[in-house]
Structures are given as C-alpha cells and as structure tokens.
C-alpha cells in the first residue's frame, strides 16, 4: 500500500497508508465519534470541505449499501480511519469502503492512531490539515498548508441549483436546501408532506408564491454568518409561515432574530450527544454535526426562548420564537446516522402547520 | 353502547408534546407567569394542570400554582344546586385578581366549563380566565371556546373520547370509542 501523510497546521504529522482516491487534499480536520453510520456521515453534505476522522477503530464492517446515502455526490474532502474493513460482511453490502471512496474520488488514510489524533484536535481545536503522498518535504508541505486559504462558500457548493419536488399527497412543505440530507425528505414524505426543494438563495416571494403550509431550513456546512442574504429572507418569511430549522437552519434563525453564533473549539459530531428539553426535563440522545453554535448570552429573550440544551457543555440546542410559529434544533431529529429519540420533532412541525392553518382559516 | 370499536388517536409522545406546547403558549399569551393560577377540573384536569405547571416552572425557573376544582355542585344536570365553594377550604380565594387558566381533558358541550366558570367566579373576581383543554371534540351547546387546545378531534355525537392518564389509568393515551353497528 502507498504510504501517505497527514500534516496538521500545528506541525503534527501522522504517518499511515493511503486508500480510496490517490489525490492530495487540504481541508479542515474534524472528528466523528460514531461507532457506525460511516456511510451516512461520509455522504452528509455538512462535512463539505472537511477531512473526516472516525474515532472508532474499525470502520466499514458493513460495507456500503444502496440505501444509506444522504447525498448523491458527497463532498467530504477526505476520510481518516484507524483501520478499514477490506472484506465487509452484510447482506446489503455492495462494495467496501475503499472501492466507494475510489468511486467518489475521496482520498482516505488508514493506519493512523485516530484516538491520539482526536486528542490533538480536542486540544488545538479544528484546524487545517493536509493529506499528501510525500512528494515534497514535510517543511515544504507545512508551508503550503499554512498558506492555503480554505473556501468559505460551502453552501453554494452543495445546495441544489434547481428546484425539485419530492411528491406526496398532503401538506405543502418548502425545504430550503443548504446541504440537505436525504433522510429529511424521508421523514417529511413519511408524514405525507409534499416537499418542494429550493436552492439556498431563493427569494422570499418565490417561496410564498408556492403557498406552503410550512418551510423547513435544512442542515448544511460552514459558517452561518457567511449567508447574510438568507437572514433577510428568514426575517420576512417567519412572519408569514411556520418555519422549522435544523442545524445550520437553526443557527440562521437565531442570527435572523438578533442572536450571535460562534465557532466551537472542536464541535459536536457523532450521535451520543445528550440533549435536555427544558420544559419536561426529558433527555434525548441525538445525532449531531455542527462546528458552530448559537451563543446563549446573545439571545434576545423577548424574541427567542431556549428550549433545549446539551448537557455536557450547555450548548444551545433548541430555540422557539415567542411571537411567530418558528422553532429550531441544532441536532438532527432525522437521525441518519444515530438514535431516533428526537424524531417526534417532525410531528411537532406537522402539528404546528396544522394549527397555524386552522388559526388562519378562522382569523 | 356495547362492543365499541377502539381507535387510538393520540399516543403518549403526542400528549407530552401537546402539553409542552400549551405550556409555551400560556407563558407567551400571559407574557410571563405573573399572577398565573392553573386550575384543573377533577379528575383528569387536575393531573394535566400539574403537568403543565411542572413544565412552566421548569421553563421560567419559578413555581406556578396548580390547584384543583370540584364542580359537582355546579353541574346543571343535577337537581339540587348546593352552590357551595368548589375549592377545598385551604385554597379559598386564590383566584381574586389572578389570571386563571382552567384546565380540562376534553371540551365537548361546554357545560362542564360553564360550571367551572361559576365555581371560579363564586370564589372571587379573577382578572382573566383562560381555558386550556387537551382535546376539543366539537359539538358545543354553549358559547364557549378554548384558548389553548392540544388537539382538535372532530367527532360524531355517537362516538366517545377516552382520555387515559398515567396518574389515574396507568397509561397516557387518547382513544375514540366508535359504536359498532
């Protein structure tokens, strides 16, 4: 196997072996603590531009199947594992991880102590990293890495450019695509929602012309403050129609209502994050993938109420608008991968659309 | 009505969600919990009131009072009208000048609520009275409507709605009983 190096911005170098695509790459390095769900994670567009490390030591046991894709063209920059399963064992498996990464042109690195790597990331925070095949010296590569400026137009890269429909007979839901996971469409379709997916830069008039019962803002990659035009759209939209936000959508709703977001040191990526619903005290284990979060002290309590918090570090995980039919969560109620504890948030959304419609008919 | 067909319309999770939403709505409508008193109508309304009060307290970090109300003396389908206080003596006039939320499980003809209104007003002059119900099944016989509704369930008069709560029935579920022909 080909030798391959991982070079971190802080000078740490990890030696391992290459698999998947052979290309060199530079991206932001992050880690995911999930033991399974690698297929969903790698194809999750929220990892756009990022080098994804799996802390669990053996990845790929169940191969890659045809059902668990979260996007058709994944844009994860690279995948790092301790060891990947060359011979997967599962009745659904169509190929192994190596073949999959080759097909999708994503480079991989194996034979690295990913737990030590994770400790380094936890200490230094998410940073730039480079996967290289050792053609230059480490010093030269490090200089190249430090000079590189990472792209920030993540959402523009992954959002759909044309509208499309995921039909069902029922409520009309508009989904604004910031890098959506297919499981969101699954969950909405399952609840008889007729879904129209629109690009991230759609104008508010275009959305309202479709007369939706509700609008959903999806998950997505990158920094929410890079999308100022979307905030204007949300400000207008939330007065007129129920809005449900997930992940990036949650951060955008917070920003549109005057709160601030910040970049977390190493983010929440995995699906063992306990989240407490404040009203009931109930804990749900949730699937999460976010590197930014809403700053609790910046929230205007006249406008927004915090409904959910993460237990370990008290990150704001859920918000609800006090005057408009708007709520959002930082985590992924659609799971994929992860526990389905929070799936009833989609029911909450359909109930909100229902009651809003009733209220409007009589008002 | 024998041999009823039983259909589950709301499950445990949905009941929890509805109560949580009502809790939010009460706070939002009342703009806080100032002068708020929750009054549950016996039997199941009492437990709903306690659960909503629990949620509001968690959200606002301050206790909200939840008391219970027995309206049997105020009912219009009984011959003797005693018109004694529906509250237990210790609670007395908790309603004077307060914003009262009457809480019941099912809103149907509105007669129970009429009785509850009389019982509350006999005990003082509340600043405001709201009504929160878990289920609104229609068929009102009096001009009464709910401010907070868990779920609207349109029914026929032949059907009946059964609300089961953990505290009384051992489980949280709402079912419709349809008479079989």
UniProtKB/TrEMBL annotation, chain A:
One of its GO terms (molecular function) is carbamoyl-phosphate synthase (glutamine-hydrolyzing) activity. Residues 1-171 are annotated as: CPSase. Its EC number is 6.3.5.5. Belongs to the CarA family. SUPFAM superfamilies: Carbamoyl phosphate synthetase, small subunit N-terminal domain, Class I glutamine amidotransferase-like. Residues 2-132 form the Carbamoyl-phosphate synthase small subunit N-terminal domain. L-glutamine binds at residues 46, 220, 222, 248, 251, 289, 291-292. It comes from Marinilactibacillus psychrotolerans. GO terms for biological process: 'de novo' pyrimidine nucleobase biosynthetic process; 'de novo' UMP biosynthetic process; glutamine metabolic process; L-arginine biosynthetic process. Small subunit of the glutamine-dependent carbamoyl phosphate synthetase (CPSase). CPSase catalyzes the formation of carbamoyl phosphate from the ammonia moiety of glutamine, carbonate, and phosphate donated by ATP, constituting the first step of 2 biosynthetic pathways, one leading to arginine and/or urea and the other to pyrimidine nucleotides. The small subunit (glutamine amidotransferase) binds and cleaves glutamine to supply the large subunit with the substrate ammonia. Keywords: Amino-acid biosynthesis, Arginine biosynthesis, ATP-binding, Glutamine amidotransferase, Ligase, Nucleotide-binding, Pyrimidine biosynthesis. It catalyses: L-glutamine + H2O = L-glutamate + NH4(+); hydrogencarbonate + L-glutamine + 2 ATP + H2O = carbamoyl phosphate + L-glutamate + 2 ADP + phosphate + 2 H(+). Pathway: Amino-acid biosynthesis; L-arginine biosynthesis; carbamoyl phosphate from bicarbonate: step 1/1; Pyrimidine metabolism; UMP biosynthesis via de novo pathway; (S)-dihydroorotate from bicarbonate: step 1/3. Pfam families: CPSase_sm_chain, GATase. Composed of two chains; the small (or glutamine) chain promotes the hydrolysis of glutamine to ammonia, which is used by the large (or ammonia) chain to synthesize carbamoyl phosphate. Tetramer of heterodimers (alpha,beta)4. The keyword Amino-acid biosynthesis applies. The active site is at residues 247, 332, 334. This is Carbamoyl phosphate synthase small chain.
Automatic annotation (TrEMBL), chain B:
It comes from the Bacteria. One of its GO terms (biological process) is DNA-templated transcription termination. The keyword Thylakoid does not apply. A motif (PRPP-binding) lies at residues 100-112. It is an enzyme of class 2 (transferase). The keyword Transcription applies. Keywords: Glycosyltransferase, RNA-binding, Transcription, Transcription regulation, Transcription termination, Transferase. Pfam families: Pribosyltran. Its EC number is 2.4.2.9. It catalyses: UMP + diphosphate = 5-phospho-alpha-D-ribose 1-diphosphate + uracil. InterPro entries: PRTase-like, PRTase_dom, PyrR, PyrR_bifunctional. Residues 14-166 form the Phosphoribosyltransferase domain. One of its GO terms (molecular function) is uracil phosphoribosyltransferase activity. Homodimer and homohexamer; in equilibrium. Belongs to the purine/pyrimidine phosphoribosyltransferase family. PyrR subfamily. Also displays a weak uracil phosphoribosyltransferase activity which is not physiologically significant. This is Bifunctional protein PyrR.
């Amino acid at each position: 196997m080909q030798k391959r190096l991982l070079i971190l911005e802080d000078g740490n170098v990890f030696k391992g072996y290459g698999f998947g695509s052979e290309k060199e790459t530079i991206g932001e390095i992050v880690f995911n603590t999930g033991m399974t769900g690698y297929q969903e994670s790698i194809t999750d567009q929220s990892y756009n531009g990022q080098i994804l490390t799996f802390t669990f030591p053996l990845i790929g046991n169940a191969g890659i199947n045809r059902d668990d894709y979260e996007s058709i063209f994944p844009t994860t920059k690279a995948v790092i594992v301790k060891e990947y399963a060359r011979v997967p064992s599962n009745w659904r498996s169509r190929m192994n991880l190596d073949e999959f990464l080759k097909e999708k042109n994503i480079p991989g690195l194996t034979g690295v102590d990913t737990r030590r790597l994770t400790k380094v990331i936890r200490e230094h925070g998410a940073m730039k990293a480079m996967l290289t095949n050792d053609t230059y010296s480490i010093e030269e590569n490090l200089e190249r890495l430090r000079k590189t400026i990472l792209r920030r137009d993540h959402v523009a890269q992954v959002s759909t450019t044309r509208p499309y429909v995921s039909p069902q007979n029922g409520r009309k839901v508009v989904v604004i695509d910031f890098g959506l996971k297919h499981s969101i469409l699954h969950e909405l379709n399952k609840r008889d929602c007729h879904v129209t997916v629109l690009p991230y830069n759609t104008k508010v008039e275009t959305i309202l012309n479709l007369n939706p019962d509700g609008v959903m803002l999806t998950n997505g990659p990158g920094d929410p403050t890079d999308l100022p035009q979307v905030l204007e759209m949300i400000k207008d939209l939330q007065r007129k129609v129920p809005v449900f936000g997930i992940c990036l959508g949650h951060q955008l709703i917070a920003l549109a209502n005057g709160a601030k977001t910040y970049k977390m040191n190493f983010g929440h990526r995995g699906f063992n994050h306990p989240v407490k619903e404040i009203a009931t005290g109930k804990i749900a284990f949730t699937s999460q993938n976010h590197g930014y979060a809403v700053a609790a002290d910046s929230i205007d309590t006249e406008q927004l109420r915090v409904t959910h918090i993460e237990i370990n570090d008290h990150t704001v995980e859920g918000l609800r608008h006090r005057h408009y039919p708007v709520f959002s969560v930082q985590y992924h109620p659609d799971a994929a991968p992860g526990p389905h504890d929070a799936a009833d948030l989609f029911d909450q959304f359909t109930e909100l659309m229902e009651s809003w419609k009733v209220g409007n008919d009589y008002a | 009505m024998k041999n009823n067909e039983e259909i589950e319309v709301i499950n445990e999770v949905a009941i929890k969600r509805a109560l949580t939403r009502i809790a939010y709505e009460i706070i939002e409508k009342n703009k806080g919990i100032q002068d708020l008193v929750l009054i549950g109508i016996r039997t199941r309304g009492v437990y709903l009131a306690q659960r909503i009060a629990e949620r509001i307290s968690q959200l606002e970090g301050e206790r909200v009072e939840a008391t219970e109300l027995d309206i049997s003396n105020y009912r219009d389908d009984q011959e003797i009208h005693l018109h004694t206080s529906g509250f237990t003596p210790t609670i007395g006039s908790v309603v004077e000048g307060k914003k009262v939320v009457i809480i019941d499980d099912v809103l149907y003809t509105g007669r129970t609520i009429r009785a509850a209104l009389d019982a509350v007003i006999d005990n003082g002059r509340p600043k405001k009275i709201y009504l929160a119900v878990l289920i609104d099944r229609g068929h009102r016989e009096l001009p009464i409507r709910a401010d907070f509704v868990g779920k609207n369930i349109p029914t026929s008069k032949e059907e009946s709605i059964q609300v089961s709560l953990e505290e009384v029935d051992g489980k949280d579920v709402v079912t419709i009983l349809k008479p079989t022909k």
